[in-house]
Design a protein that fits this description.
elongated, 26% strand, 30 strands, five-stranded mixed β-sheet, four-stranded antiparallel β-sheet, single chain, Methylamine Dehydrogenase, Chain H, 11 helices
């Protein structure tokens, strides 16, 4: 369009120059100029519409016809636009040189205005080219190259994953450069491999801590097998943990397959069970919950505390303060649903754990007892036993707290013990006589004389009723085989007979205050309160005392009470300092 307009202008100018400026020619020129101006105005209007379409496209236009119109024209006019721009420059130079001398001043002024308009139009036409560039040539090989690069990267990743082992995502260089003194703290001394070792590198210290943690908390066998089967693609039911459980009728929980060594017992010292809330007095009672990982502590500070036992944090669950009762005895009853606490008062309390309800019981109906401190119970029995000074044992219902029956003895009663099933009660008195009571009939089954015990102080029966032990005021503990007791009872002509101990433990020199069997009847714990560190563990059935623990570095304090967890995985010891010492027994894997 620009070329045609310039050719018309040049032809008009030549005709005017040839005719010498006649009036007819002037009218013709004016007519042509007017028509050319109208054409320019139409082109400008047309250009403005094109610009409008372009603005709609750039700033939010959504008309497909506009997009096709703009981009279609741009692609079709790309080659022509470059040629027109070159030819326009050449022609404008030639026309400028020819018309400098021939045209009059008036026409030169009008020509300048027309040239300015043409420059504006050219700049508008050239502006589109500078704003947009449409690449119509596609690289056919680009897709193939991308695919080849992605394949090469995946191959390299697979090769690296096969050749290289798993490494840490992040390594702290300061840990490798640091050194840790193992002798500075008592906890870190156990990490030494040799007695003379003092300092180790940070990464070595980290690895030994990890090994110590794995030693304290070993991975169960079922977890190892489950991890192996998780990577096994086979569909056989025999290879799964569930398949093993379904293919056998053996109990899920059984005794350890290896026997406990009679001379050495592995123990691991853990954080105190009551580290979150230590007792403000000596701990008089300590007991594990029969089914949950919960530990009970109570003392003369009149507070009952429950802790969650995990060996790490041992968080406190609950504490209950009894303002009028210094606690001397606290025990779980009814399968762990309830706790009973008593002391040197004529009343005692019952705590319902599930309902968080505390009930005060006013003694034993029909008996005015100033002190109920000697109370005994069992998690499996439905009875509570209170010892009185006159050789009487009062039985109370664990459910209703109502009086049931009184079991009389010939002499003053010193201690009683329930069997594991809760159906029988054993008792001993100052006259060295031992009684076996049937709680279902409230009668004495048998009675015998303990000639090896001098002034007995405590009594305990093993969970499997294979042994019973008796401690005396001289620090001697006698262990008896119940099978011998049964044979004596059958062969004796009367109800009274003598029984001799098969083993006597003389390692302690002060009065024995407590005896405790573990769940498998393989360990018997004996302790005295009169001197510090007076605790020993006895192996059964050999009757030998473990020589490696406790040692001179154990620092147990004055032991007041002790207990084993339901499966002997943990052992807790309460001392006069208000601490509940917690130990892990690695021989037993379960809690």
């Amino acid at each position: 369009m620009a070329v045609k307009k310039r050719e018309q202008k040049q032809a008009t100018k030549r005709s005017v120059a040839q005719n010498g400026g006649s009036s007819d020619n002037e009218d013709q020129v004016k007519t042509q100029k007017a028509s050319s101006k109208r054409q320019k105005k139409a082109m400008v209007d047309k250009k403005s519409r094109a610009e409008t379409d372009l603005e709609m496209l750039v700033f939010g236009g959504e008309d497909e016809d506009v997009m096709n119109n703009v981009f279609g024209k741009m692609v079709s006019n790309l080659p022509a636009a470059s040629k027109d721009s070159d030819s326009d420059q050449d022609e404008s130079e030639e026309s400028g040189s020819e018309n400098e001398e021939d045209e009059p001043e008036a026409e030169s002024k009008g020509e300048d205005e027309e040239m300015a308009e043409e420059m504006v139009e050219d700049s508008i036409e050239g502006g589109d080219d500078s704003l947009f560039f449409v690449d119509t040539v596609l690289d056919k090989n680009s897709g193939d190259e991308d695919e080849s690069e992605s394949e090469s990267e995946s191959d390299s990743d697979e090769s690296q994953s096969e050749d290289e082992q798993d490494t840490a995502a992040w390594v702290d260089e300061d840990t490798q450069q640091a050194t840790v003194a193992l002798k500075s703290k008592a906890r870190s001394r156990k990490l030494r491999e040799t007695e003379g070792e003092n300092e180790v590198a940070g990464d070595v210290y980290e690895e030994r801590l990890r090994q110590q943690f794995q030693k304290i908390n070993p991975v169960p066998k079922w977890a190892d097998k489950a991890e192996i089967n998780a990577w096994d693609d086979s569909d056989k039911e025999d290879d799964t943990v569930g398949g093993d459980l379904l293919n056998t009728t053996a109990p899920l929980i059984s005794k350890s397959s290896t026997l406990l060594a009679p001379t050495k017992l592995d123990t691991i010292r853990l954080r105190n069970a009551n580290q979150m809330a230590p007792s403000q007095s000596a701990i008089s009672s300590i007991q594990f919950h029969p089914t949950s990982s919960v530990l009970l502590t109570a003392g003369l500070d009149k507070t009952l505390r429950l802790f969650e036992v995990d060996g790490k944090d041992n968080q406190k669950i609950q504490s209950i303060y009894f303002k009028d009762l210094p606690i001397t005895s606290a025990q779980f009853i009814r399968g762990g649903q309830e706790v009973v606490v008593s002391g040197k008062r004529g009343w005692y309390y019952s705590v319902d754990i599930e309902k968080s309800a505390v009930t005060r019981i006013s003694g034993i109906p029909g008996y005015k007892m100033k002190s109920l401190e000697f109370m005994h119970s069992s998690t499996t029995s439905d009875r509570l036993a209170f010892m009185s000074n006159g050789g009487q044992i009062h039985l109370v219902s664990a459910q209703t707290k109502q009086f049931i029956h009184t079991l009389p003895m010939n002499g003053a009663v010193r201690d009683v013990a329930f069997t594991a099933d809760g159906n029988y009660l054993w008792s001993t008195g100052l006259d060295n006589e031992v009684y076996q009571w049937d709680l279902r009939q409230n009668r004495c089954l048998s009675r015998w004389h303990d000639s090896a015990t001098f002034r007995p102080t405590c009594l305990s029966v093993s969970p499997d009723t294979s042994y019973y032990a008796s401690g005396d005021n001289a620090g001697v503990v006698n262990i008896y085989d119940t099978n011998v007791v049964k044979d004596k009872r059958v062969g004796a002509s009367g109800a009274f007979y003598n029984v001799n101990a098969f083993k006597s433990i003389n390692n302690l020199t002060t009065s024995i205050q407590g005896l405790k069997f573990n769940h498998s009847s393989e360990i018997l714990g004996i302790y005295s309160r009169r001197k510090a560190d007076q605790l020993k563990l006895v192996h059964l059935p050999s009757g030998t005392v473990f020589s490696n623990w406790p040692s001179s570095k154990s620092h147990l304090g004055h032991v007041q009470c002790m207990d084993f967890s339901p499966n002997s995985g943990f052992m807790a010891i309460g001392n006069d300092g208000g601490k509940a010492l917690l130990y892990r027994l690695p021989h037993y894997q379960n809690y």
